[in-house]
Each structure stands twice: as C-alpha cells, then as structure tokens.
Design a protein that fits this description.
By secondary structure, the protein is mostly helical. It has ten helices and no strands. It has two domains: 18-95; 96-177, no CATH class. Helix 1 (21-31) crosses helix 5, helix 2 packs across helix 3 (49-61) and helix 7 runs antiparallel to helix 8 (123-140). The longest helix has 20 residues, at 157-176.
Length: 177
C-alpha cells in the first residue's frame, strides 16, 4: 500500500529541468480530457489510430522533438500508454523523478519472482512484463520515474542495464526497510 496517496496528486513539475520530456508528458497527461486519458489507457487493447493520434498530440505538446517521436515511436507510444495508466481516472501526475520504480513495485506488493522475470525480459516480452507492472502500480495511485521505464525499453544496452540495476536496487532497499 502506498504511504501517502495525497502526494500523488501534487504537481512534481515545479522545478522542471530543460528537455525533461517525462515531466512535460506528466503535465500533459494530467491536463488531458478524461476521454483522451482513457484512449491512452486502452491503446494497447484497441490498437486504434485515434489512440495513436492522442499519444502523438500529447508527445508534441510535451515538446518531445518531432524527429524523436518519429524515430522512437514504439517506445514513446508505450510511455504514453503507461502515463495514461498511471494517471488513471483521477488525472494524477504519472511521473516523479524521485520515486524509483523498484520501490513503488515493492510497496504495491509486486513479488520478487515477478521482479526477476521483469528484469530478465527483453524485446516484446519486456513490454508485456512492464505493462503488467504498470497496471499493478496504477492501483496504488502513485507516480514513478518514467525515465527508468523509458531507458529500460530502449536499445542502448548500457542505459537499459543501468535502469534494471536501479529498479532492483530500489526494490531491495524498500524491502530492507
């Protein structure tokens, strides 16, 4: 169970760094209509062009460079979907750079076995494991560091492995408390 559900509704974007897309994505997701957030949440189920249009609109309004959206569409599309899930129907901010994904998973009751399966996954299986983890996190109504998820999904093995290590470190640190 999350320790402070009210904190999830606080705006974590007060000290935004330049080019912090995740903070901008969080702000855009929070400010969306309930219909657009619902489209993001269901986009993996419906595979509709309308949901993709909502994701593109959100990414461009968040000042993600158009070239990056085009070249990194699959990963950014998943980030949009996950932001929609984490924001939920209450329009919460889905991103908080200070909240590690691993700690949030532990607090949500994510088992160590599932964590190990998630950390060992690659490719398409990773997307499925992350979707499961984010759905579990969305029940806790707490934001997480979307940059860790973004890097975990990426093609850069150094950043991906660093994200895996951070996730494991935060999970086991929370478990040790």
């Amino acid at each position: 169970m999350a320790s402070n559900p009210a904190a999830a509704n606080a705006d974590p974007t007060t000290a935004e760094k330049p080019d912090d897309w995740m903070t901008s994505i969080s702000r855009q997701t929070h400010g969306m209509s309930s219909g657009d957030r619902a489209a993001l949440r269901r986009m993996e189920l419906t595979r509709s062009p309308g949901a993709d249009a909502v994701a593109i609109k959100m990414l461009l309004r968040a000042d993600v460079p158009e070239l990056r959206v085009r070249d990194d569409w699959t990963r950014l599309r998943l980030i949009g979907h996950f932001a929609g899930l984490l924001s939920g129907t209450a329009a919460l901010y889905p991103h908080d750079e200070r909240r590690g994904v691993g700690a949030a998973l532990f607090e949500a009751g994510f088992s160590e076995k599932r964590l190990l399966r998630l950390l060992a996954s690659r490719g398409e299986a990773l997307g499925g494991q992350l979707a499961l983890a984010v759905r579990i996190l969305s029940r806790e109504r707490q934001p997480v560091n979307l940059w860790d998820i973004y890097h975990l999904l990426g093609g850069d093995p150094v950043k991906s492995d660093a994200a895996r290590l951070r996730m494991a470190r935060h999970y086991y640190a929370a478990q040790a408390k």
